[in-house]
Amino acid sequence: MTIHKIAIIGTGIMGMGIAQIAAQAGVEVLLYDVRIGAAHSARQTLKQTLEKLTAKGKLTDAQLQSTLNNLIVTDELQQIAEVDAVIEAIIENLQAKQQLFAQLEAIVPASTILATNTSSLSVTAIAAECRHPERVVGFHFFNPVPLMKIVEVIPGLSTSQSVVGDLLDLAKRMGHLGVIAKDTPGFIVNHAGRAYGTEALKLYAEGVASFEAIDRILRDGAGFRMGPFELMDLTGIDVSHPVMESIYNQFYQEDRYRPNALTRQMFIAKKFGRKVGEGFYCYENGVKNAPSRALLAMSNPSWDINITAITSVWIGADLTEDKQQLSTFLAARHIDIDQAPMPNVNSLVLLATYGEDTTNAALRLGVNPEQAVGIDMLTDLVKHRTLMPSLVTQEKFVGQAYAIFAKGENPSDVSPQATLIQESTGFVAQRVLAMVINLGCDMAAQQIATPQDIDNAVKLGLGYPYGPISWGEKIGATRILLILQRIYALTGDQRYRPSPWLQRRAKLGCSLFTQQNNCQ
Q1: The model's pTM
Q2: Does 293 reside within a domain?
Q3: Which domain holds residue 374?
Q4: Measuring CA to CA, which of 42, 97, 280, 304 is 20 to 30 A from 335?
């Protein structure tokens, strides 16, 4: 069925966004809201938005008029009886959605699709009380709908395949990529997003680095558009923390999704982030201007660095390519490299290892931890460098490492391009990226979506520079597996256990996109 006419129930931000892209795509849209006057107000707001787009040259006058003609307000629910599909965007409450769908079944014919824009509720549960659960489906958009070009199509256990196909076609006509997601907690995007914030919070709770430093490393070094704490402030702790708790509990306390007590405290204290002027950072007129005063007292102490003369540098690395890259970097800065099998007592020992702290790396390689500073090679050396002294590294060697890596290529660079962190079992970027990629692999193994759909949904829905599967391909599955295996062995924490999907493909040298299709 080609969908020509729809009804939007609930005309808040999400409902208006869906209505806008549908009307622009030539679909007739009936707007209904139980709140008196809300649908009329929504249409007026949409009219103003569309007029602004026209003034900017994004729409022609003809397109403006055509879109407005497709937006029709209805004051009675019974007036939507002839639509091809109904999309509800009401309060995120299971009982309310079930009651609405029961009302709709008494109004619309059995051929009308009933779609829910739920972000966290089970589609199967919403459909459970319906006479025709086969026509109930999830159709989950992201805010702001016109800009977030992704929509999850979620069949419940009884949903007809033809209904899924009809909504994928509608999504395409509206200019969005539709991806099919299994009806599991968080679907694709909200599920995949758990790794980024929860691991960053764990790093902060362990005193590995300040939240500012973690943001800087992941933004400048790893390439995320925003640091995790900046992102939580933007989304709002009042939104993000309940989602963390909900997904953790819906997966029966699976360790991978374990929330953090800090965001619970911030939730209770109403330090929600940008919308209230304080979260992890303080805001003035919506602009970040300083770290939160309350949280600054909880941050780990900054480094007191004594920059001293550099004699030579001895390099220890897990990978030959990392050792070569560091050698080239040091040679370009005219720094002597200690080529001896074991380091000279005056040499800075630079360790490029994965999934371990500098103490463990030094002892494993048989070098003196007092000379050792670890460096994360998972991030781009040109953009940002993360350095990790051991617990007993002498101050002069910490200063030497910082002197080498803090200065950028451009002499006019003012801000340092290196961050010093306390010892951690794996660096900041290593831990966060490994968790993001491992969770994406786990989702593929659970068949929540195809590997390509997981990748596309996360990239478009969360704004990551790569989807988790392609990011794993870029870094290398064996490297990610090494990080996880070492962290898991050293900590025993179940959250770091490597996904079987990742393990098999890393050991076989297969692409992480490889699916097993030859089974009946």
Answers
A1: 0.93
A2: no
A3: 313-420
A4: 304
DSSP conformational letter for 512: T
| Residue closest to 160 by CA, chosen among 197, 194, 123 | 123
Asked if the bond preceding 109 is cis, omega within 30° of 0, the reply is no
Dist. CA 85–CA 162, nearest whole Å: 13
Cα-based distances in Å from 426 to 295, 361, 468, 490: 24, 10, 19, 10
Q: How far apart are CA 61 and CA 57, in angstroms?
A: 9
In total, the chain counts a number of residues equal to 520
Residue 497 in any domain: the answer is no
Q: Where are the beta strands (DSSP E) in 74-184?
A: 85-88, 113-116, 136-141, 150-155, 177-180
Residue 35 lies in a domain: yes
| CA–CA gap between residue 236 and residue 434 (Å, rounded) | 25
| Tally of structural domains, the chain | 2
Angle in degrees, CA 409, 410, 412, rounded to 5: 145
**What CATH number corresponds to the domain at position 362?**
3.40.50
Q: What is the dihedral of CA 116, 118, 124, 129, to 10 degrees?
A: -60
Whether residue 520 is predicted with pLDDT greater than 50 in this model: the reply is no
Q: Which of 387, 420, 453 is the last residue of a domain?
A: 420
E strands of 239-324, at which residues? 281-284, 287-291, 313-317
Task: Identify the sign of the CA torsion 322, 327, 332, 334.
Answer: positive
Which single residue is written with the structure tokens 């200019």? 175
The pLDDT value recorded for residue 410 is: 58
Ramachandran area for residue 389 (φ above 0: left; ψ -120 to 50: alpha; else beta) = beta
Last residue of a domain, one of 157, 183, 209: 183
* pLDDT score, position 38: 97
64: nearest Cα among 16, 17, 24, 124:
24
